[in-house]
Write a structure and sequence with these properties.
By secondary structure, the chain is mainly α. The protein has two domains: 90 residues; 71 residues, Winged helix-like DNA-binding domain superfamily/Winged helix DNA-binding domain (Arc Repressor Mutant, subunit A), CATH 1.10.10. Helix content is 79%, strand content 0%. The protein contains eight helices and no strands. Helix 1 packs parallel to helix 3, helix 2 packs antiparallel against helix 3 and helix 5 packs across helix 8. The longest helix is centred in the middle third of the chain and has 33 residues. It starts with a helix and ends with a helix.
Length: 184
Amino acid sequence: MVYQQTLADTLDQMLHRQSSEPLPFDLAVEFRRSYQWLVKRLWNKLSCRFDAEDIASSSFMEVAVLAQSHHIRQPRALLTTISTRMVYDLWRRRTIERTYLEQMREMQEVHALSEEQLYELFERISLIDKALEQLPEKTREAFMMSQIDGLKHRAIAECMGISVSMVRKHLTKAFTACYLASEG
């Protein structure tokens, strides 16, 4: 309960620092009204109260930093949308981590990496995943066909109905994005 009050006060301070005009939407009031509702909703999805509270808090923080937060007409709908995206991001990240650990166990290299090295590796993988997510769909599709399915350029071109030179351009763009993300 103290945590909720502190977060509500922080959100209220952030909002009043951002804008001096009167707001028809009061985030602090909405936090007090909807925080428990959102946590309960997320807890049903995640089966973990801690994750539910983290995502609910992060959802309210995202609303607090929105440039047009005073125009929000349906705050619960917005909170639901933001928190659902965060849940999917959490699930996607955990799937990536789980898949990577399974592959590492199969290769029996897990014992060679320290906890810190594994964490750094997960962070890099997560950055690469986000970079790939930002790419155009065709670029991402060509990259996946190449790296996951192991297809050659010509096979990718046939599957996608594009030229081999276009496949090369897509792959160059994807590899560049991966490299920049892993170095960033």
